[in-house]
Amino acid sequence: MPRWTTPTGLGGWLTLLLGVLLAVIGLILTVGGVQLATLGGSWYYLIAGLALIASGVLLILRDVRGAWIYGATFLATLIWAFWEKGLNGWALVPRLVGPLVLMFLVIATLPALRRGAGRLAAGSAAGLAVLTLIFGVVIAQANKAQVDHPVPGARGAYNDPALLKTGADWPAWGGTDSAQRYTPLTQINKDNVGRLERAWTFRTGDLPGERWGAETTPLKVGDTVYLCSARNKLFALDANTGQQKWTYDPQVADDQIPYTAACRGVAYHARANANPAEPCAIKIIEGTLDGRIIAVDARTGRPCPAFGQNGAVSIKVGMGDPYPGMVSITSAPVIVRGVIVTGHQVLDGQKRWNASGVIQGFDVETGELRFAWDMMRPDRNGLPPEGETYTPGTPNMWTTASVDENLGLVYLPMGNSAADYWSSSRRPLEKQYSTSIVALDVTTGKPRWHYQTVHNDVWDFDHGSQATLIDFPTAAGVVPALLVPTKQGDMYVFNRANGQLLHRVEERPVPTTGGTEQGQRSPTQPFSLFATLRKPNLVEADMWGMSPIDQMFCRINFKKANYQGYYTPPSTNHYINYPGYNGGSDWGGVAVDPVRGVIVANYNDMPNYNRLVPRAEANEKGWFPRDDPRYIAQQKQAAERGGSLSKGEGAGDPQIGVPYAIDVNAGWRVKWTGLLCKEPPYGGITAIDMRTGQTLWDRPFGTARKNGPWGIPSMLPLEIGTPNNGGAVVTASGLIFIAAATDDLIRAIDIETGKTVWSDVLPAGGQANPMIYEQNGREYLVIMAGGHHFMETPEGDYVIAYALPEGRA
């Protein structure tokens, strides 16, 4: 056994430091490895930890056997990593990068070691070269686009008459009432898309600060682009130059901002057979964060005097004067048969008996209430009697509806009550309509049909995506249909007239035990057999991190958590909700190429790490609703300190009115690095054959350039698959244009292969849906770069238009 001697020279001291480092890492891995093995997890970390302690001690003694032991440990790590994950490049990064760096350092210490250093050094160069080659393969694998089974796009002839409305114009938030996000324009194509340049840029001047996220998609009608800013300022721009024509500010106060200052879009309406020069013959309709419907003249921006009071009506009438920020409109309203239909956001996680989720319809000319669908009062159709309110706490529709003018139906993607994670106090009609698609007849204000995609939802799988109208091919012929994407990833296709399913759905057994509400969980849940974006259930080997240490930490938490797979019941110990509430399709919706018969969907693939928090503990943490005086005092104190509330001092989700608050670790992030516990990808984009529901290609979406530990951008141009918010637009020339990802890029993707063929760096996050139009023979691509606080992308106020160079279109 070698004895300790005082190191000499720089090499000796560096060897000592490396030995200490290896011993400390080994100790951490050993302690964590014991816990993980006790929980039934991998034994690798315990064995590797003991080996690193031995290696470190021997290096401290400058014994060459320490290098031999580390080399053997690294070789074993290499074999174990490839055994667990094969050539999955991103999965191999935490398993091999750190150990490889340490291997280089160990080899560098060889001249300072005693006994056999020369022999080890002679064999190390060749071995290290082989390891470096292997690591190069790993990085190359991580950089692959990972496009799964690409095949040529399915060809069909599914022509929707509503598509005639797009091309020169983009008259609705989803392109048309059909919400297909498709344009028949072909000027920009795969051959020339690389020559796109910025044609104009407009800045709204609206930077909300702490809760930014404009999410705006402009409209274009005639020679004018219409849009709203984060706090509901309206703008009209020249479609050719981007120069401002007019602006209108409805003066929304900052205290009305709910979770995010967002205005996803506006609606356009032209009165039939009216003189366009007549005041308010053509209108822009907007819903505001403070719960108003605004109508302004599309030519001048002046409020329409015949609409409500000075061009505005309040949706809060009959709601009992909700506290600022509790009720807001963040999504574009829709108009069908002269009726403006809107839902609203009820601030999640605050109070079980928060404001009603009532759906309202207003006359597009006068602002008069035409109907109010309060699901708990099906006998009523208007305002509640004096002294009463719409039923508190009912499920709401916070996203955008879609409409069928011919059928007089508006399709409502419904959510839950504001206490998403507790169901015992829900009433039968709430349980019937929550997390459902509801077809509402605008002539009666009553449901024509509905379908529920999650029974008694306590996973926050509310419908966020706008449904899309398609012509669906069946054995009996083409059927006018409704395509409904969901947060859990499944896609459903209905006959949009009667709600009949046009594909198979299975009711499969799901977990019912291990949660807090025994007897409340449905024994089965529907699973669509048409198409799904959902990935297989998580396993321990799917855990990730920056290094073996935080990967081990994630593995330990995985084994400790309550996780029984899809639909794991909520519990007071940590449980894994996968996919999380941002998973599958969210408010960006899907895009459809009706000619090729292809559905394009971007999606998120992240778990949430949740825990139901008993009320006494939540009170101790200071988790109070926004209207509670204690919260108001906390908010004031935080502002005086120049900061904002953290989880521990009032920024949790209190769910007042039920026994538990909810603690949601969205994306399941490690607190000290900010990285996610699940391995990449965290988001993807896929193309689906509309005829069969089969996947044509599927690939990670978003590069690692703006992601990294501790929030430090790595600037790596590698496709990792990032979280994303916002959707796509598809062109007849076979291009998909989309921003959405957290890498601050807008890109064009070939719909046939899934490969990126053009991209540009945005000055802020592109969490918005793009749109396309034509003006004076030139095709324009427009995106709002406003960033998003939740997605942690830079704040901005940019509206950017791209086009081919003039004269070369």
Automatic annotation (TrEMBL):
Cofactor (UniProt): pyrroloquinoline quinone
Keyword Oxidoreductase: yes
SMART domains given in the database record: PQQ (SM00564)
Annotated Pfam families: PQQ (PF01011)
Keywords assigned by UniProt, alphabetized: Membrane, Oxidoreductase, Transmembrane, Transmembrane helix
GO MF annotations in UniProt: oxidoreductase activity
Domain Pyrrolo-quinoline quinone repeat span(s) in chain numbering: 170-780
EC number(s) given by UniProt: 1.1.-.-
Transmembrane segments: 12-37, 43-60, 67-83, 89-113, 120-140
Family (UniProt): Belongs to the bacterial PQQ dehydrogenase family.
PANTHER family, sorted: QUINOPROTEIN ALCOHOL DEHYDROGENASE (CYTOCHROME C), QUINOPROTEIN GLUCOSE DEHYDROGENASE
NCBIfam families registered for this protein in UniProt: PQQ_membr_DH (TIGR03074)
Name of the protein this chain belongs to: Membrane-bound PQQ-dependent dehydrogenase, glucose/quinate/shikimate family
Species of origin: Brevundimonas albigilva
